[in-house]
Amino acid sequence: MLLAAASAVSLSACAAGPPPEIATPVPELPETYAYAPEATVGAELAALLPRDDAAFQLLTAQALAASPTLAEAAARIEQARAGADRAGAQRLPEIGINGGVTGTRSNPAQFSANLPPGIQADSERVAYAANLTARWDPDIFGGLRARERAALSRIDAATASARAVRIALVSEIAGAVIDWRTLAAREAELRADLASAEELARLAVVRERAGIAPGFDRVRAEGSAASSRSRLTALDSDRARLLGRLVTLTAQGAGDVRASLNREASAAALPPPPPALPSALLTNRPDIVAAAATLAAADAELAATARRRFPVFDLSAAVGLLAFGLGDLLETNSVIGNLAASVAAPLLDFGRIRAEIEGAAAEKTASFEAYRGAVFTALGDAEGAYALVASADREAAAATQEAASLQRAAQLAGFRQQAGLADFLTVLEARRAADSSGERAAAAAGRARRARVLLWQALGGE
Predict the structure, then answer these.
(1) What is the CATH number of the domain that holds 386?
(2) Within a domain: residue 330?
(3) Using one digit for the tens of pLDDT, what is the confidence trace for 394-448?
């Protein structure tokens, strides 16, 4: 018996061969980011979000409570947890109970006619049975344990993926709220430009009627005012797009979303980007955590598939009652039972197990490359986000300085014209140059705030 089992083990091991060795080294990353600030000037990661904006706080709370995307991610976690529970239960004995009544009727002629005198064959019989059964796979070679490890890793992957969904949701809401506030700032600047342009147009009409200026000055002034009105009208389509996106993200009606956006927002200063290292990035990024968990699950699945080369031992037992009369069911003689042990091993499967092992090995290789891809994607996101913050800050500072200079020039041109030192055309040119400079500065400031949200997401959020 032992010799036969040993032979089965050796033959089954030779049938498929050992699983391939797949190296999964941790990717080497640089010590710091190219555009990261000095550690002495950086802010906290959470400061990159518009936390002082009441609309952001309210819309985020509503989204976290009612978002269908988050609810779906939570269901995926429960699904993975159920799979892990099932994999763990596979390692425990399976106990069952059954009962039945069986009636049989046979032809007496099938029995020998030479029965002893007084003995007759009973052609009708009713059997009553009740059994308690048990079956257990001792998992000697660890195949079930490997599948349980894989299922537990899938819980980690689903949990990390749900966290990634949450971070993406918060990031998108923050960006939408910032864009909404930026539209309001641009509108205020454009209305100021429109008021100045309309005043110049009024003065041009007066000068034309007085005969001291040609109609060309009036036409140019009215064209400047029309340009400001056109840019104001274009803001409405951007607001409609943002409102629709926030309805989708928060699972709230348009009225509720607009009421949240109508709340006042404090004008907080731009926080400096936080200093960080790739090690912190690997700790915080949920997509990397999910990829690492998926890799661990693939490794465990490869181990479980490789265990198919070895025999499977099965222990089973049953104890019950069997009687041919309902009143005899509880008699001592009605107690029956059996105990069995079996072993099954592959001998010649013509490459089936080998193919499964190679498939599992390829899956592990793919999972490792996906993990490497997630790591370097995260590194690239962080590098790009740091650079974007630095670039957006320089752009915002330059746009603010430009707007201040052009507005000052337009104001001085007006003073010179009133003093008779400049003509009306000079005032119009200075006003046209100043128009939309404030809007450009507001848009640049919005992009700088938006860049910080992207950096928050790139560094793992939370």
Answers:
(1) 1.20.1600.10
(2) no
(3) 999 999 998 888 888 878 877 777 777 777 677 777 777 777 888 899 999 999 9
Q: Is the distance from CB of 311 to CB of 342 less than 8 angstroms?
A: no
Distance (Å, whole) CA 278 – CA 314: 49
Side-chain-side CA neighbours of 269 within 13 Å: the count stands at 4
Token pair belonging to 124:
């009708």
Residue the block writes with tokens 């009962």: 99
Region at 191 (left for phi over 0; alpha for psi -120 to 50; beta for the rest): alpha
Whether residue 289 contacts residue 374, with contact meaning beta carbons closer than 8 Å, is answered with no
Q: What is the pLDDT of residues 122-148, one digit of tens each?
A: 667 788 888 889 998 898 888 999 999
Name the residue range of residue 401's domain.
23-89+146-310+352-458
- Stronger pLDDT, 57 or 434, i.e. the higher one: 57
User: Is the predicted pLDDT of residue 231 greater than 90, yes or no?
Assistant: no
In this structure, how many other beta carbons lie within 10 angstroms of the beta carbon of residue 76? 18
Q: Pick the closest to residue 448 from 182, 239, 245 (CA basis).
A: 182
Please state, for a pLDDT cut of 90, what percent of the chain lies above it. Answer: 41
Does residue 102 belong to any structural domain of this protein?
Answer: no
Asked, for residue 346, whether it belongs to a domain, the answer is no
The residue type of 258 is R
Q: Is residue 195 domain-resident?
A: yes
Give which of 448, 432, 451, 444 is closest to 401, Cα–Cα. 444
Three-state SS string over 219-269 comes to: HHHHHHHHHHHHHHHHHHHHHHHHHHHHHHHHCCCHHHHHHHHCCCECCCC
CB distance 288 to 371 below 8 Å? yes
Q: Which DSSP symbol is given to 26?
A: P
For the ranges 17-21, 159-163, 401-405, the one whose mean pLDDT is highest: 159-163
Compute the distance between CA of residue 345 and CA of residue 110 in angstroms, rounded to an integer: 42
End-to-end CA distance of the chain: 61
Domain count, the chain: 1
Q: If you count them, how many residues does the chain have?
A: 462
- 109-135 as b/e, with b when 16 or more CB fall inside 10 Å? eeeeeeeeeeeeeeeeeeebbebeeee
Query: Is residue 183 within 8 Å of 239, Cβ to Cβ?
Result: yes
